[in-house]
Amino acid sequence: AGIRRLLSQSAAAAAAAARRTHGRWLVPQCAQQIRSRRLSHSAHMAAVDAASLLIQTAPRTVAPPLVLLTDAITAEEEASLVEQLAPPLRRRNYLCAHFDGVIEQYRELERPLPWFSPSNQHTLARVIRLAFGTATPALLPAHVLELAPGAASFIRPHVDHVGASGRTIAGLSLLSDSVMQLTHVDAPERSVRLFLRRRSLYVLEGEARYEWKHEILPDLLGFPVELRTEADAADESERGAHDKGRRIAVVIRDEPRAVDSVAGAVLPGGMAPLRYGAIQAEGEPPDLSVFPTER
User: Fold this and answer.
1) Residue 32 and which of 48, 98, 266, 289 are 20 to 30 A apart at CA?
2) Can you list the alpha helix ranges (DSSP code H) found in the chain?
3) Is the distance from CB of 106 to CB of 94 less than 8 angstroms?
4) What is the pLDDT of residues 42-75, one digit of tens each?
5) Can you tell me the distance from the alpha carbon of 10 to that of 17, in angstroms, rounded to the nearest whole number?
């Protein structure tokens, strides 16, 4: 009930809550439609050139529409999330390979939003509003994914299964910086790299969700030191200048729809999806109280 109340707050209240994060919107020029949809939540933030945190790895590659919000949460909010997530993660061993062959050296869990402490619910409610806007769709439980430190842990190029999640992928990066690479499905010579700073939030939807594979690279090569978070740069003396640290990602996805479409094309996976809560009417927040308390 508390989460639902927070998600139902006005756009002005959400903007006021987000103002405390002192974040910055980093929006490529090709994502104008995304920026215009979310300006009500980020009017206090400075829209800056995304070139510093998004680079082309192939000449004349145009990045897909995407949004990156640096400092989406505070250091105190990050510490609170990690404190709650660390014990259940520690009870699981690092796994060598994911069932679909995409992830190496990881451990993961799923938790419905009401499982989180009240303060962490408040933090995630703000993150959800920043990622999904005012018309929040029905959401899946949060997917918490930890990658072990070092080059042995990484995520291979993939497109999230369209039958398992909906139109938007929002990822909150905790504990360390990392590098995401996006590669076009039909034109692999087209690729870009996105520098994910600690406590940043990325949002992939539309073209970036369906037409580009995304991956987390095994190291920080190419991530300029001057752009890394101070805490992560300070840890380099212990692990090497380009070694990736331990990373926890909290990934929020909306529920899949039985029939979804992009530019009029029917996507695969049209079977009825797993249901974690009732589908809400357009424009209404999800009723998170009906989510299961454990999975």
Assistant:
1) 266
2) 2-7, 11-19, 32-42, 75-90, 118-132, 207-210, 230-234, 236-239
3) yes
4) 322 222 234 467 776 777 778 888 889 988 999 9
5) 11
